[in-house]
Design a protein that fits this description.
Keywords: Stress response
Family: Belongs to the small heat shock protein (HSP20) family.
Number of strands: 9
CATH architecture of one domain: Sandwich
Organism: Carpinus fangiana
Helix content: under 10%
Strand content: over 45%
Radius of gyration: 23 Å
Mean pLDDT: 83
CATH topology of one domain: Immunoglobulin-like
CATH class of one domain: Mainly Beta
Protein name: SHSP domain-containing protein
Oligomer: single chain
Structural class: mainly beta
Largest sheet: 4 strands, antiparallel
Pfam family, one: HSP20
Length: 99
Amino acid sequence: MYWEDTCLVLDARMSGFNNEEVRVQFRDRRVLQIVVESQRRGSFMKSVQLPESVNVGQLKTEFDHGMLKITMPKLNMKPKKKNPPIIVTVSGRHGCFFC
């Protein structure tokens, strides 16, 4: 799992499985599950906790040549408000604390 400029990407090698055997689902709002069910190899599941900063409603999956790629865009985060400077009076002087 890694960050790109606009999204979080999860790559998972699924060699030997086809796209009908691999399912991506949510256990709850922030836990992504990759479920594999195969008659030849049995079944298994991997859960991944997702950060709050991704938009899980716009998740995209690709399955190509045994590689599963899940892409989740970053949420449009509002920039944090800049704190106003703290004005301090020291020994009769008036100025900005952080200047």
